[in-house]
Specification:
Blueprint: E1 2-4, H1 18-27, H2 32-39, H3 43-49, E2 51-54, H4 62-70, E3 75-78, H5 86-99, E4 105-108, H6 128-134, H7 137-153, E5 158-159, H8 183-200, E6 203-209, H9 230-234, H10 238-246, E7 251-254, H11 272-281, E8 287-290, H12 313-322, H13 328-341
Parallel strand pairs: 2-3, 3-4, 4-5, 5-6, 6-7, 7-8
Antiparallel strand pairs: 1-2
Helix pairs in contact: 1-2, 2-13, 7-8, 8-10
Domain Glycoside hydrolase family 3 N-terminal: 43-298
Protein name: Putative anhydromuramoyl-peptide exo-beta-N-acetylglucosaminidase
GO molecular function: hydrolase activity, hydrolyzing O-glycosyl compounds
Length: 342
């Protein structure tokens, strides 16, 4: 599995002139210290900052350590095949921080219900729909907080959630993974969840922007299509995302959805227009992460690569990195999150 930790912006040259750096630091004052650090990095180091990958290990091997370090990878995502028991999981996450990067982003999809990776997570059977059906903000907060504390104890510092999707009906493939079909209820549950995750000290990655609720297909099999204008999205699908952004969610995961009213060529995960929507219209200052780039509905556009980390990670990872075009601000945003939240 491979994820990109921000939608590509205009590529910077590796050596930036002093005036340009000063302009960036003025425009992005909250990133000032990190801009200087990124500017001194090699292109390989910058590429690594923008990459989160899967690994096949349950016990971290020397080969994996070398691959991750050589490519300066900033983050990994864990799956069920990486996890045996509590002791093993703690050792794996500890070793990633000890031998690769003490600030490494270690993430997981641990929604509960249909999607979970940790068999000994005692909250694994509680889905977002069950939480939404409870109509209890307190219950939503408590479940999210306890799950986040558990993940933190396991050495995981980043969760791919909560879902901000608002399914339009029960036929939506994401219906059972969502809090509700009611946008106000979704927003309330998203708010409780993000507050809980912040209180527990874990990074929130809200998903699947701009919303999977009105699609009938899974982007792991083909590109979902949304046939709604931006104004229609703002009146429903984008409301929970705006709530999450206003609460300070650190990351937004952008899906492989296509919408002709926003970009008639590229899916959201590869489109500059969606980045502008998030940053300029919605005020998001955090990191934009793509959905998994190794899906059957794979991306073959701006960043043209595929990698199957369950089989040939070491042969493919360098080819993947060659196609990443890093820019200073994207890298600085990732570095800020790594330093301040891990």
């Amino acid at each position: 599995m491979a994820y990109l930790l921000i939608l590509a912006q205009k590529k910077d040259s590796i050596t930036e002139d002093e005036k340009y750096i000063l302009e960036l630091k003025k425009k992005y004052s909250y990133l000032s210290n990190y801009i200087d650090e990124v500017n001194s990095m090699s292109i390989e180091e910058r590429r690594g900052l923008l990459t989160m990958v899967g690994i096949t290990d349950t016990v971290l091997s020397k080969e994996t350590i070398k691959t991750l370090k050589d490519n300066h990878v900033s983050g990994v995502i864990l799956f069920n095949y990486n996890i045996v028991d509590e002791e093993q999981l703690k050792k794996l996450t500890s070793d990633l921080k000890k031998y690769v990067n003490k600030n490494m982003l270690i993430s997981i999809d641990e929604e509960g219900g249909e999607v979970f990776r940790i068999p000994f997570d005692k909250y694994k059977d509680i889905s977002a729909k069950m939480i939404g059906d409870s109509n209890s903000i307190e219950y939503a907060y408590n479940i999210a907080y306890n799950k986040a504390k558990f993940l933190k104890d396991m050495g995981i510092n980043m969760i791919l959630g909560p879902l901000c999707d608002v399914p339009s009906n029960k036929d939506s493939y994401i219906y059972n993974r969502s809090f509700s079909t009611n946008v106000e209820m979704v927003s309330k549950m998203v708010e409780a969840t993000i507050k809980a995750q912040k209180d527990a000290g874990i990074i929130s990655v809200v998903k699947h922007f701009p919303g999977h609720g009105d699609t009938a297909v899974n982007s792991h099999s083909e590109f979902p299509i949304i046939d709604k204008t931006l104004e229609e999205l703002k009146n429903k699908e984008l409301i929970p995302f705006q709530k999450a952004i206003d609460l300070g969610a650190e990351m937004v995961l952008v899906s492989h959805i296509k919408n002709k009213y926003i970009d008639d060529t590229l899916p959201a995960s590869m489109s500059e227009k969606y980045r502008k929507l998030l940053e300029e219209d919605m005020g998001f200052k955090g990191v934009i992460i793509t959905d998994d780039l190794v899906m059957t509905g794979k991306i073959e556009s701006t960043i043209n690569y595929g990698i199957n980390l369950t089989s040939n990670i070491y042969k493919n990872v360098k080819e993947m990195f060659r196609n990443i075009e890093p820019d200073i601000i994207s890298c600085a945003k990732v570095l800020k999150i790594m330093r301040e939240n891990t």
